[in-house]
Amino acid sequence: MKLNELCDNPGARQARKRVGRGTGSGLGKTAGKGHKGAKARRSNPKPRYFEGGQMPLYRRLPKGGFTNVFKPDYVVVNVGSLQRAIDAGKLDPTRTVDAEAMIRAGLVRRVRDGVRLLAKGQLSAALTVEVVGASQAAQAAVEKAGGKIILRGAPSSEPATT
Known about the structure:
Blueprint: H1 38-41, H2 57-60, E1 75-78, H3 79-87, E2 96-97, H4 99-105, E3 115-118, E4 128-131, E5 133-134, H5 136-144, E6 148-151
């Protein structure tokens, strides 16, 4: 076997259609496109969402809602995850648990507009937690365990004025 003798098996490759090469080929003159019009001139004659002139769905449905760009983006931490971090030795229950402590413990990756405490899970250690916000159930769970919550304002991105 030589390199110049290599070839595909018979029928493995189908020859492409050579359109517009004379009437004898069967695909001459208009090349299988019919006569004139947008369909004869372009590869994609109309958009995928075109509904034949009927009012399209995206125009029949009303526009609605908006996105508030000023809405604060809080990171959520549950009291159960605080307890798991204490059990794993990642958090010290004798110290105040703030955003930096939660980052070091791996509970949150970054503190966007602050940390908000929610009540999912159980808490048995008495903790002092410093957060931007907390649900009433989370406050009750921390106080029931003998701890307290310190609510701080959200960190501002504006420079301090003197």
